Each structure stands twice: as structure tokens, then as C-alpha cells.
């Protein structure tokens, strides 16, 4: 702009510049418009706006006038030292004819374009110095007092525009956080999503502008946290990592139940990924801190603000309530399921078993009257089949019954759990049957032996037998505990699992019992029997 413009025309130019600055509400656009308007207003070649970081120095540096090649040659942008730092330390206008002659100047990096005259003016937002306007190389050689007054007036308008843009951006972010919170609450309470933590992490990653979001939970080991879910930068390296509560930001947040905001965490993740700004927010449920929501940006990234922390904390509080309500809803569903299963078990016991038992008695009565021996034998076999069916139904009733914590470690539960674990490796789920007071007699070390033998036998069936059907029968009768595992596979050579059979045999021998193994093309049977009235010969048997 020509230096000899009239005062009226320069005031008109100031009004135009002010209008250009206040027209936008997007903060990055507003900041660039401020620099462009200042350069145009006083005829400068170069202009920049340095946003001051809370910890000092510059958080952002928006520049106008330099080409992309010049920027690449310079490398990193100014950090707020030298003459720029002087304006940060003392927020009053600085006007120089020659930058290099001022003792506060620290010079320019290699490849930096030559700059001579300089004008720096602080930009205030209310009582806060938000940043500084830097202008260089006035077209006529020097900045004048009038230039300084015009840029100072523009800076005042810029402060208002920045405040409006910040408020607008904050309002928009709050609306997004609020919408996300409502979305998560709806999803958790509807039962459509069971992975509540993963849902929260992924939503927060998009809302916060963070590069990494994690949820850390306490572990069974005191003083240790685990990264339950991670999304973003280095997530595969972070997922499942154990963290010492005493030496971590998350640990202090969990203990104090208060969110924390750090400008620079100086944390290095596996894979040499360094983190910069960090927010950590406790997940509090019913007054108890159950975990930590951890948000981080890469080193050198824009800082989180106190408004960001407030929004994240509010979101975490609502998410914690939603998680708690979701768990309560799940507990109610489980209770309803247990009640339904209990009703089915009672119906099986009170009606089905009684009817089958009555039918068996009737058939036995008929068998005693028929004249044909072959027919009587068939009826007897049918009665035996009914007895087996009753035993199987009783096993089903036991599995359906709601488990009580103090009885959860019974031998029946243990065998059913092992069968469920191995079922995916078998063609069909094994038939399971119990006879006699097995839960009263098979306890402690004997229960450990029975489950080890059963697991070894059924694992061999899964690996080698290619069986269509298999069964597990545990009986307590005539002073003996007998476990029989059978399958209808093609049989396996004894050499394939010699070590496993030796382990089974040793367990029987130590208890004064027997172990039998029979395998052929039509199937395999493992029969393990020990007296339950005897104590083990050795305290320490083989490990499973």
C-alpha cells in the first residue's frame, strides 16, 4: 500500500480490514485473515501471527509472504525466541528500522529471506495476550507511527474476532461431545453394543482431535494398570500394555479422581513414538474411579485447552453412568435368564423325569409277564435306555441350575466347563453323565486328578480320533470313583500319546486304582477307577 495515502483512505482501509477479519467464524481462517489484512493495511512484504502457548513460546505460527520452497528451506518455524520472544515477555508494540541492529535479535536461520524493518503488536483477547502480530519489510522502507496505530487498532478488532471464533468453535465442539454422549448412552442402554469401552474410545478419538485415545483399567495386581482398549497412534503396540500406577499420569488421576492436563507429557510409546500434549480423565462410577480415559497428541502438536479438558471430563462422567446403567441392564437380563433356566430345570425334574421313570416301571412290569424271552430282553434294554436318559436329563438340570459361587468349583461344574472348552475341537458336544454323590466324594486332590485325566482323554479324542460322538461318564459306586471317556473314532496307536497315558496310569497307581486303555477301528475307551476311601500314596502327583 502506498505510504502517501491520505488519513481518510487509510481509515477506510482499516474498516475494510476489520470487516474482512470479523466475517469468519472458523478460527484458523480468522487467524490467517488477520495476518493478510495487516500485511495489506501497512504495505508489508511479510506477516505472521504467533499464538502464545500456555507454557510460553509459540503454540502456532501463521505466516504470509514466504513461498513453500522458502518454508521448506528454513525447516522448523519460530519457537518464540529472540525478538519474537521479547514481544512475548513484554507485550507492547515494537517498531524497528533494522532488525539486525537490535540487541534482542537472535538472527535468522539459513535460507531465511532477508528482513529489515519490523513492527510487532500484541493481540489481546479480553485481558489475555493471545498472540502477537509480526510484520516486516515495509514497502517504503520503514514502518511509521501511523502504521503502528493502524495495526494496533486492527489487533483490537482481531482480538474480538478471535474470541468470537473461539466461542463458536467451543460451542460446536460441546454440541458434538453432547451428541456423542447421547449416542453412546442410547447404544449401551439399548443392548445393541456390548463393547462399551471400544465404542467410547473410538468416538472420543474423532471428537477430541487426539492422535491416541486409551482406556486404562486396574488389574488384579495392586499398583498396575492395563491398557484395555487403544485407538490411534501406535495402538497395536499400546493395546494390552501394563503400566505402573505409581509412575504414570493415569495412576495419579485414578488415585486423585481428578482430571489432568499436561502441555508436554514427554512419554515414549513402544516403537519410539513420542507423545506431547496429554489429557487424562477418571472414569468414576458410584464414587469409585474404575478407570482412566487417556488422550494424547503427538509431540509438537497443538495443545489441549482447559475447555477440551472440561468437555472430555463431562463426557467421561456421562459415559461412566451409561456404562453403569448398561451393566445393571445386563445383570437384570442375566437374572431373568437364570430364572428362566431354573424354571426349565424344575419342569424337567418335576415332570419329565417322573414320567420317564413311571414309563420305565410300567415296562419292567410288562417284561415280567411276557412269555417271549427275546421280547423281554428288548423291553429290558429299553428300560436301561430310559435310565440313561434320566441320568442325562439330570446332568442337563444341573447345568441349567443357577450356579452359586460357593459350589461353583464342584466336580460337575469342572467337567462341564472342560467339555465346553473342548467342544469347538470336536464334531459334536460330548455326552456327559454323572451317577452317585460325585460332588461330595470327588473333591480336593482327587478332583484335580479326575479333571486332569478327563481333559487328557478328551483332548486325545479331539486330536487323533476323528470321532463323530464321544461321552464322559463319572460314577461313584461300590467304593470306587470311575471315569470313563469313550468315542466312536477310528482309534489311535498307543505310541501317539504314550506320555499322556503314562500320566493317567500314574495318577491311578498313586491312589491304588487302575487305568485301562482300549482302542480299535471302531472307537477308543479310557477307563480310570480309584477307591475313594483311600488316601493318595504320594502327596505330589504328576502335573496336568
UniProtKB/TrEMBL annotation:
Residues 26-172, 192-333 form the GAF domain. Its cofactor is Mg(2+); heme. Keywords: Cytoplasm, Iron, Kinase, Magnesium, Metal-binding, Phosphoprotein, Transferase, Two-component regulatory system. GO terms for cellular component: membrane. GO terms for biological process: detection of hypoxia. It comes from the Bacteria. InterPro entries: GAF, GAF-like_dom_sf, HATPase_C_sf, HATPase_dom, Sensor_HK_TwoCompSys, Sig_transdc_His_kin_sub3_dim/P. One of its GO terms (molecular function) is nitric oxide binding. SMART domains: GAF (SM00065). This is GAF domain-containing protein.
Amino acid at each position: 500500500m502506498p505510504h502517501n495515502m491520505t488519513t481518510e483512505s487509510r481509515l477506510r482501509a482499516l474498516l475494510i480490514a476489520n470487516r474482512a477479519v470479523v466475517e469468519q467464524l472458523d478460527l484458523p481462517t480468522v487467524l490467517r485473515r488477520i495476518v493478510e489484512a495487516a500485511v495489506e493495511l501497512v504495505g508489508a512484504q511479510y506477516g505472521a501471527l504467533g499464538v502464545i502457548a500456555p507454557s510460553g513460546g509459540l503454540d502456532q505460527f501463521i505466516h504470509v509472504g514466504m513461498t513453500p520452497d522458502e518454508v521448506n528451506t528454513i525447516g522448523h518455524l519460530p519457537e518464540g525466541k529472540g525478538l519474537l520472544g521479547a514481544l512475548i515477555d513484554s507485550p507492547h508494540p515494537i517498531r524497528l528500522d533494522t532488525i539486525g541492529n537490535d540487541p534482542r535479535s537472535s538472527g535468522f536461520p539459513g535460507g531465511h529471506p532477508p528482513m529489515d524493518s519490523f513492527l510487532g503488536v500484541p493481540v489481546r483477547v479480553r485481558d489475555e495476550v493471545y498472540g502477537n502480530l509480526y510484520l516486516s519489510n515495509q514497502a517504503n522502507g520503514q514502518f511509521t507511527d501511523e502504521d503502528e496505530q493502524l495495526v494496533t487498532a486492527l489487533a483490537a478488532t482481531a482480538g474480538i474476532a478471535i474470541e468470537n471464533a473461539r466461542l463458536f468453535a467451543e460451542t460446536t465442539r460441546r454440541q458434538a461431545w453432547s451428541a456423542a454422549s447421547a449416542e453412546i448412552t442410547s447404544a449401551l442402554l439399548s443392548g445393541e453394543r456390548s463393547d462399551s469401552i471400544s465404542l467410547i474410545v473410538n468416538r472420543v478419538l474423532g471428537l477430541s482431535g487426539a492422535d491416541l485415545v486409551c482406556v486404562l483399567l486396574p488389574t488384579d495386581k495392586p499398583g498396575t494398570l492395563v491398557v484395555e482398549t487403544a485407538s490411534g497412534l501406535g495402538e497395536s503396540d499400546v493395546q494390552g500394555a501394563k503400566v505402573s500406577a505409581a509412575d504414570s499420569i493415569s495412576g495419579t488421576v485414578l488415585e486423585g479422581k481428578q482430571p489432568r492436563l499436561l502441555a508436554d507429557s514427554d512419554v515414549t510409546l513402544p516403537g519410539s513414538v513420542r507423545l506431547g500434549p496429554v489429557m487424562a480423565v477418571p472414569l468414576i462410577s458410584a464414587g469409585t474411579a474404575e478407570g482412566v480415559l487417556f488422550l494424547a497428541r503427538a509431540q509438537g502438536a497443538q495443545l489441549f485447552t482447559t475447555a477440551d479438558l472440561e468437555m472430555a471430563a463431562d463426557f467421561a462422567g456421562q459415559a461412566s453412568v451409561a456404562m453403569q446403567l448398561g451393566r445393571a441392564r445386563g445383570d437384570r437380563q442375566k437374572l431373568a435368564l437364570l430364572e428362566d433356566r431354573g424354571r426349565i430345570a424344575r419342569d424337567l425334574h418335576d415332570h419329565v423325569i417322573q414320567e420317564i421313570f413311571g414309563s420305565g416301571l410300567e415296562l419292567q412290569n410288562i417284561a415280567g409277564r411276557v412269555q417271549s424271552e427275546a421280547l423281554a430282553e428288548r423291553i429290558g434294554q429299553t428300560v436301561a435306555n430310559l435310565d440313561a436318559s434320566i441320568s442325562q436329563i439330570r446332568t442337563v438340570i444341573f447345568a441349567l441350575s443357577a450356579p452359586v459361587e460357593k459350589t461353583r468349583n464342584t466336580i460337575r461344574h469342572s467337567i462341564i466347563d472342560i467339555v465346553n472348552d473342548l467342544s469347538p475341537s470336536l464334531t459334536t458336544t460330548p455326552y456327559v453323565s454323572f451317577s452317585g454323590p460325585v460332588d461330595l466324594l470327588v473333591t480336593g486332590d482327587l478332583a484335580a486328578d479326575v479333571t486332569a485325566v478327563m481333559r487328557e482323554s478328551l483332548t486325545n479324542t479331539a486330536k487323533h480320533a476323528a470321532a463323530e460322538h464321544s461321552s464322559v461318564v463319572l460314577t461313584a459306586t461300590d467304593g470306587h470313583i470311575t471315569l470313563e471317556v469313550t468315542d466312536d473314532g477310528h482309534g489311535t496307536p498307543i505310541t501317539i500319546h504314550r506320555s499322556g497315558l503314562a500320566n493317567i496310569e500314574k495318577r491311578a497307581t498313586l491312589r491304588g486304582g487302575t487305568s485301562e486303555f482300549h482302542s480299535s477301528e471302531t472307537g477308543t475307551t479310557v477307563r480310570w477307577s480309584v477307591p475313594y476311601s483311600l488316601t493318595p500314596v504320594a502327596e505330589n502327583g504328576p502335573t496336568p
